[in-house]
Each structure stands twice: as C-alpha cells, then as structure tokens.
Amino acid sequence: MSTETAFRGFPGQSGNPHRVAVLVRDGLLTMELGIVHRLFRQALSSTGEPLYEVLTCTPEPGDVRTDADVTVHVAHGTDILAEADTVVVPASDEDYTPRAAPHLPPELAKALGRIRPGARIASICTGAFVLAAAGLLDGKRATTHWRSAADLQRLHPRVRVDPDVLYTDDGGVLTAAGVASGIDLCLHMIRGDHGSRVANEVARGTVVPPHRDGGQAQYIPRPVTAPRQSSTEPARTWALAHLDRPISLRELAERAAMSTRTFSRRFCEEAGQTPVQWLTGQRVDRARHLLEETDLPVDRVAAAVGFGTAVSLRQHLHAALGVSPSAYRSTFRGAAGGAAAAATDADGRRPA
Questions:
Q1: What pLDDT was estimated at residue 61?
Q2: Is the pLDDT of residue 215 over 80?
C-alpha cells in the first residue's frame, strides 16, 4: 500500500472522548473546517456515546475571515492545543499567494509549540505548508494539493513530498491532498482509532465512500486522449468478489480484455498502485473487518481473504499495521473477541 497506515487504538485522555483541535487561520477554507467537525462528531460508541470532542481554535480568538462571504467566530485560543489528542490544520486562501521562502508567523510557531508530545498532527490541503515550516514534516512522507506540491518540495527539501496520492500517514503525522481527500483522511483516522464499523457508520451518515486508499492517485489534469473502450474497474469488481482464492495478474487482465502489460499500466494510472499492492491492501482491509465483526478463528479469516494461512495473515497484518491479529481483535472486541477463537488462538497457533 502506498500509505503508511499507522494502527493505533487512540482513546482520549483518562477515558474521556478523544479531543480533536482544529487550528484555523485567517482565510480559512470553510469546507475543510466543516469536514472535521461533521465526520468526527458523528463517530459514536456502541452505546451511542460520542467518541470525539471537536474544538476549533485560532491564535487570536474572535471572528476569522474565510474564503467565502461569511466569517467564523472562534471562541478558543491555542491554549487548548496542549490538551488535544489530535490537531488538524486546514488550508487558508493565503497559502495560495506566491511564496519566496519558508515562513511561519510567530503566532503560529507559538501555537504549534503548545502541542503535547505524542499528539497526532494532521493537515488538509495546503495546511501542509504550516506543518512543514514548523519542521514537523522533516524526513516524513507528505502530500498537498497537486498545484502546490512543487512549491512545498522547493521550500522544504527535507520533506518527502508525494504529489500523486490522496493522503499520507507517517508516524502519527498525516497530510491530505485536498478537500475531498480530507474526508478520506478523517475516515482513515477514525478507522484506525475505532475500527471499520465506526468508520463505515460515519461514512454512511455523510453519504461518502467508506474507504479510498491513500495511495489512489489525485485527479491531475492530463492531455486529452481518445475515450477508452475499456477500464480496469470490471477486474477490480471481480477481484473483490473472489478475494478468497488466488488471483493472478493474467486473470485480472483477461477480465479487462487487455494484455497483462497494458492492464498493469492502466491499473497504476487508475488506482495509483500496482495490482499486487491493491490486492494485498484489499485483503488486509477485509481481514480487519472480519476480525472486528466476526468470531471466525484466524485461520478461517486468512482463508476467507485469500492469504491462505494464519501465518501469512499475521505477516501481512503486521507489515500493514504493526500488530498481530490477536492484538487487533482484542483492541476492537475486548475480552469477548478472544473467546471466539475457539480451537485456535488469534495468531493461528493451537493453544497449549
């Protein structure tokens, strides 16, 4: 997978709802602020309790100019950042002015300095320039809107800018390419915190797709060519219905009526990753769902998603999320999940 999916069971401090602080600036893009509030505030526990508390802050509380014909009144100052579990920095229309050198206003530098160690930090669109100027993206993989990616790389050469993906997650610092991918990024964080069930319910309530992998390509204008008579979509649809069996590149290409070479090229253009990377990601996602929502022993989960053996599933899950199937299941299902393993434990080994 192109994104570095960091698994973390991320409860709020002291058992309270996870606090998300949105740091806004003059020229705020209102839709990006709305995304964070709308998605995180829809996330509920199985008993209907809010899983997140979302607060908005700014260096100077009061009316904040937006990119629309409205202002937003922000009551909180940046002192709340010291108690935040996650900090999100949306874009500002001022980010699109010509840039001659890296620049972080003193009030923003002071605000970011208040973020407590260990807090998750994310940006949407050109909010990445703020994180980069603060040094938070140094040595990390990051993205921003494709129109601004070259400027981000030029101004901050220590950042590993990837202009082609929807979002990135590198060691608890996350970036999204634009407004729509900000939705994907928020769902990605909710899914990592509380599992697929909660994230899917939030997506359903917002009427958006429940999951787009961060490695999917941004929609960048390309030279106009003749309309294609075929696409890799039928092959992907077929593969999703047959994840329990081995799937070869030749089979996928035949489903799309293409040569394997043409299919591989078009698949990368349309999905932003190779067929093998995509298949592995889909199998991991299906396994996560089964571990969260069913009592199937891990060897049967492995068979159901096409990894074949519990050992193979364990290796793939650890590579993607850094945890074993047993740890993943216990995070989302608690002690009850362990009892469901029956004849095998969650790592596929017979209990002593």
A1: 96
A2: no
Count the alpha carbons within 13 Å of 20 in the hemisphere toward its beta carbon.
25
> At 29, which amino acid appears?
L
- Look at residue 346 in the predicted model and tell me its pLDDT: 41
Longest Cα–Cα distance in the chain: 67
Crossing angle for the helix pair 310-321 and 325-339, to the nearest 10 degrees: 120
- The CA-atom distances, in angstroms, between 40 and each of 51, 52, 206 are 8, 6, 11
Q: How far apart are the first and last CA of the chain?
A: 35
Confidence at 103, pLDDT banded by 50, 70, 90: confident
SS3 (DSSP) at 332: helix
Distance from C-alpha of 173 to C-alpha of 274, rounded to nearest angstrom: 25
Distance of CA 297 to the CA centre of its chain: 28
| Mean pLDDT computed over 284-289 | 89
Mean pLDDT of 191-201: 88
Q: What is the CA radius of gyration of the chain?
A: 21
Half-sphere exposure of 335 (CA within 13 A, CB side): 0
CA distance 170 to 185: 12
Given the DSSP bridges, would you call strands 71-74 and 62-65 parallel, antiparallel or unpaired?
A: antiparallel
The partner residues of 343 in beta bridges, in order of sequence, read none
Long-range Cβ contacts of 149-157 (<8 Å, 24+ apart): 151/99, 152/128, 155/99, 155/101, 155/102, 155/129, 156/102, 156/132
Token digits of residue 236? 């992907």
Pair type for strands 160-161 and 167-170: unpaired
Helix ranges restricted to H, 47-178: 106-112, 128-133, 149-155
